[in-house]
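User: Sequence in, structure out. Go.
Assistant: Echoing your sequence, followed by the C-alpha cells.
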Amino acid sequence: MIDKKPIQDMPNKAFGDKHFASEFNTVKQFLLKTADAVNEIPAMIASDSKGEATPTSSPTPWAPGDPALFEKWEVKVAGTYTNFKDENNQFIIITEDDFKDSIVQIWVTNGVAKKEIIKLPEVDYNMSALDPDSIDKAETGKSVSTYFKSQIIPPKQTSFLKEDEINLFDKNAISIGYLNNGVFSPNTSYLTSDYIPVVSGDVIRTQTYINWACYDANQNLIIYDTVPGAGEEFTIPNDPLIAFVRTDAQIGYKDSLMIVKNIPYPPQYVPYGDNVIDYKDENFKSLIVSTVRENQLALREKHLNLLDTSKLINGFMRADGSIDPNAGAKLTDYIPVTPGKRYIAPGSWDSGYFDQNKGNFQLVTGVGGNFLIPNGVYFMRVAIPASALMPDSMIYETTQNPVDFIPYELANIVSELPAEQLRPLCSPIRGKKWGNIGDSIANFGVGYKVIIPSQSNCETFNYAVDGASYAPKSGQTMVISEAYVNMANDLDIITVHAGVNDVTAGTPIGTNSDTTNVTFKGALNVTFKGLIKKYLGRKIGIITPIQREGNSYLLPYVDAIKEIAKIYGLPVLDLNSSCGLTPDIPEVKAAYFDNIGLHPNRDGHKVFANKIQTFLESL
C-alpha cells in the first residue's frame, strides 16, 4: 500500500514562480490519483463475483477511509439498478440490447458503479464434441474424419459428396392462414410454410404461392412481396440480415406442394425429409463426417466440366433478367466463375452474368460461347443453342483445356474452408480434454479458455476461479496446491496459470526445498509434483502471469515459477515476457485492459490466445 499522507502534506503553493507552482500542483494531483489506483490493485485481483444482481440489489457500503473495495456483479435482467450509481451519481441502466451476444456485469470500485458489456466469442460453428468417425449430418456441425489427410483427393467418377436437399416444405409444420404484408393472419382457406433457412441470392422455386416474406435470425420481418396467382421462382433479396423465408398458398395444395432452393423444381413429388446423401463410392463413405455450416461441406467437388445437363431448362435470358422459354436454347443453372478468367461453352444465345448474390444481372450477347468474366461477376447462366448441344458438350475454364470429354460427375475433391476453419481440423489437440486451472485471467468468461477450443476443437474442462492462488491466503477462493486433486482423472492436457494473487497476498517466496504450501515455492513444489503423479505421462504446461502496471513487483514470483518448473522438467510459457501487452503504455491499457490495467479484456485475450494454443499443441 502507498501512504498518501506525505503527498497530501505537500503545500499547494510550492517554491518558485506561479507557473512552476501550478505545474507542481498538477503533479501532486496525479500522484494522489496514482496512489489510489495502486492501492486498489490487491482488492481488484483478489475479488470474486458477488453473485447475480437484480434491480433491487445493493453493493457493499463503502465510505472514504474504508479499505479499497472492488466487486463484480453478474446481471441477467434488464432494468434500472437504483442502488448502483456511476461517477456522475446516475443510476446504472441495463437494456435488453445490452445482452445481445454479450455478458453483462456491474463493476463497483469504492462505491462507484460501472456497466461492463463483455462480447461473446464470434464463433459461427458448433463447438460441441462430435464423433470424428460419424457420418451423421450435424445441423451446425464441424470437422471431417481423421482419415482426411490433405485438401485434394484425385478425381473420382462419383458425386459422393453431394447432398440433395430437395423439398423444404414440411406440411406437418404449416400455419393455417396467409401472410398479410409479411405478418401471419389466420384463415382456414390458406396455409403458410414454416420458416425456411435461406441467404441472400438463394433461388426459391415452388408450384404456387400468393405471398412471400423474409425474416432475420430472430424471425423479425425484413421484407415481403405479393405476387397473386401461380409462381415459378423468386430470388431472396440482397440483405445480410435475411435468415428465413415463408410462403403461403391455398390450403388445397397442402399434400402436393414443394418448395425447393437452388435446384430445378422436381418433376415428381418428393416428400419433405427425403433428402439424399449419395455415397456412390463406398471407399469414401467414412471420409465425410459433417457439415461446417448449413449447406457448406468441409469438402466439396470442384468440377472440371461445369455443364450439368440435368439442370438445363428451355430458354434464354431477356434484357430485364427474365427468361424467354424458347425451346431453341437450353439455359444452364448458375455456374460459379472467377473474374478475369475465360470460359468456353458450345455456343451461346443471350446469356447472363450475376454478382456474388446471384443478383445485379448483366445481359451477355454476341460472345459465341467465349466468356471473359469481368470484375464483380461470380456466376453466369449460359443459353446454349439446342442444335449445338451434344452428349459430349462441356463448359470449362480455359486453363483446364480438356483434350477428351470429362463428365460433369468427374470432380476434384477440395477443401473450401478458410484458414480459421481449417485450423481446428488440423490441430494436434483436436478432440483432447484440456484441464484449465488458474486465477481470474484463466477464468475470464470470453477469454482464451473459449477462444482456443473454437480454434482447435479441443474440449475445455475449466477449474479456474477468480482470486485463486498457489498458496493459502486470507479470504481465499481456491488454493491451487490443494484443489488440483479434484480435477478429472482423464484429462489429456493440463495447464496452470496463476501467481499474481500470491504476490498481492504477500506470500513469502521461500526456498526450492520447501515441501509445504505455506511459501510460494513450497506451494509450487506441491502442485507440480502432485500433477505429475496424478497425470503420469500426460501433457502438463505452466503459464506465468501476464504483465501488470508496475510489473516489477511480479518478477521474483515469475522467476520462482520458472525455477521450480525447471526442477521437474515442466514446460513453461512465460507470458510475462512474451504476451505482447504491457499496460504501462496508456494506449495499450486503454485498448486491451480494464481501467486500472489488471485484467485483459476480450481483445487482450485475443493477442495471447494463439501463443497459449501453440504452447498446448507443442506439449
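User: And one key feature?
Assistant: The longest helix spans residues 18-46.
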